[in-house]
Amino acid sequence: MEAILLVGGQGTRLRPLTISTPKPLLPTAGVPLLEHQLTRARDAGVTRIVFATSYRAEMFTEAFGDGTRLGLEIVYVTEDEPLGTAGAIRNASAALTCADDSPVLILNGDILSGHDISAQIAAHEKDDAAVTLHLTLVDDARRYGSVPTSPDDRVLDFVEKSPNPPTNQVNAGCYVFRRSVIDSIPAGRVVSVEYETFPGLLAKGETICGYVEAAYWLDVGTPAAFVKGVTDLVLGALASPVLTANEHGVLLLDNATVAPTARVGGGTAVGAGASIGADARVESSVLFDGAVIEPGARVIRSVVGAGARVCSAAVLEDCVIGDGATVGPGNELLNGARVWPNVALPATAIRFSPE
Ligand code: GDD
Ligand code: MG
Which residues line ligand 1 (CB under 6 A)? Predict the structure, then answer.
């Protein structure tokens, strides 16, 4: 079976992490974020994936090549200018080889999901639907596509990012399309699957079905969600084909070092060559390769970029520190503070909280 992966977005809400790396490639428990979904799709029978790229397209080729490493055939179709979600799907369809009536799996590139992809495909075939959407329940649907369904799982409406969503049942960003429906999307212009294609298909009376499954699901769109995704993977809350169970709630990658008196836990991932000094405390955090946590520093629910340094007795809570930045001794950064790459904060012992 063939799939299309949407990975052309800029990931602006995750800046500064996404300045140098597109969101789907952020190191997530030791591998690029989208590797968890790719291998799940592979295990559900997908053999060939078309990457629909735009922003920093070359980095995807460098990371995945022809896909052999993952047991997949990967090809790339790059938009010169982003074509929107449906425009990207239509553009990528030029590289599909399957028949008109074949099912094609479409994946958003920033999702961690434990749902049963095979069961979604089976439901699509049973209903002979034009499109079948994975739907899940969230507490607040305003950031998502809100999708009411009938008792027999027919999609009744598709309302993207509304202040008054009709239901908390939302589009989970994984679709099965009949190939001929993809080819009916207008070519060569910006088209949104959420604002144009789904409402348009519904208006035409096409059969769009919901596959409702409340498995683990996360849109990794914000720093807090990224930290949650990594720590959940390390703690085993979401099984991934590329991770083995971790018994201590900590993932140490190659040559990472942790001083015996440091306290590290809560699903923390310590990148290759990163180090945590004596008496430091690192809880539910993500340290990229080569990050340095000096003795006595405290890092809680934060991301520390590649080669960044958190000096002694500094405190980070719910923060993002860009690659190569330095947080001088004694600074206290709280509540969503972000330090841009290569910035050096002096040892002023300031307390900074943006809200
Ligand atoms: N190739 C390409 N070109 N990809 C794109 C483009 C584009 O122009 N625009 C967005 N993408 C990709 C992004 O990289 C991402 O993988 C996916 O499309 C979805 O874009 P997001 O920017 O992450 O959208 P969202 O999270 O605000 O909303 C979408 O996902 C929600 C679930 O996570 C919508 O589909 C919502 O309806 C849905 O609930
Ligand atoms: Mg998203």
Answer: 6-9, 52-54, 79, 82-85, 88, 108-111, 144-145, 160, 170-173, 194, 219, 221
